[in-house]
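thought: fold this chain, then report.
action: predict
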Amino acid sequence: MNKIIVCGALAYDRIMDFPGKFSEHILAGQTHILNLSFAVNGVKESFGGTGGNIAYNLALLGEKPKLIAVAGKDFSKYETWLKKNKIDISGVKIDKNELTACANIITDKDDNQITAFYPGSKEIIKLNYLKIVGSGLSGNAKKISLDEISTAMDSRLRGNDKIAIIAPDTVARMIGYAKIFKRNDISYIFDPGQQIAYYSAAELKDSIESAKMLIGNDYEIQLILNKLKIKLSALEKMVEILVITKGGKGADIYSKTKKIIVPAAKKKAIVDPTGAGDAFRAGFIKGLITGLELEQCARLAMVVSAYAVENQGTQNHRFNWAEVKKRYGENYRDSL
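observation:
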């Protein structure tokens, strides 16, 4: 059985490099008549999406995550790639009437990004879509209620030996996952990311309070605070672990009124920040299931994210556990 369940988007990423700065082209006070065109240096298509990226990095770390996602009729080449990397895709639902999600990402020379994202299929929950439970949910393509799924959940998925992550996808699916995991006592990490704006305050609050851990970058966490109309001290009390990533400045971890500051790992080169956050999450999950202390989890996450930053695209980097341990020691004078 899989110990790690990864719920998130699958997408084709089209990454483009803009040789200038967005700030030089956006006029203050004129955004109501915004009409811009950026000439980029090229386009590179690669496999991406939050679910695919996290699962890919976990596979590099020696894990076998269960990937739960929805893809479209053009999924075949991505499917081949995931299978090649030994990722369990039996929980991926194919919608033959839609294309797989795609992200068109433009990155400027200051590593700022503008993304146009097509979410793909609007399918929510189907029997063969959540095939994480075995014979109770097989083969049928009809939609069923969360209660039916909850009843059919295999007892082997319950308890503390499982951990899930709900990464950005369509909000309807993310809300559904949170309800299922809550009802079946599965600890989950909530990573609302760029979907925060599409949650109601009540929906966001419910998903956070049911989570073991909330993770987001400093901007995303501020969006959550604004939407819930609370202060950081109140958000800390809503979850067991709160992780705030700060790019090249590292991350802050809050747990039981304790704050841990973890510096970023050194990069050999900064090539492409796209996917660094997903790599970080994979490293943190690896640390949690291995039983590491929170500071070690964050350090491991920093090392894994460094590999992603050093390569173009979100699934083009490679590493093995021995390399990660060596780099971890070099950066933090600690051993795994």
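thought: worth noting. The domain at 4-21+42-332 is CATH 3.40.1190.20 (UDP-N-acetylmuramoyl-L-alanine:D-glutamate ligase).
final: tokens above.
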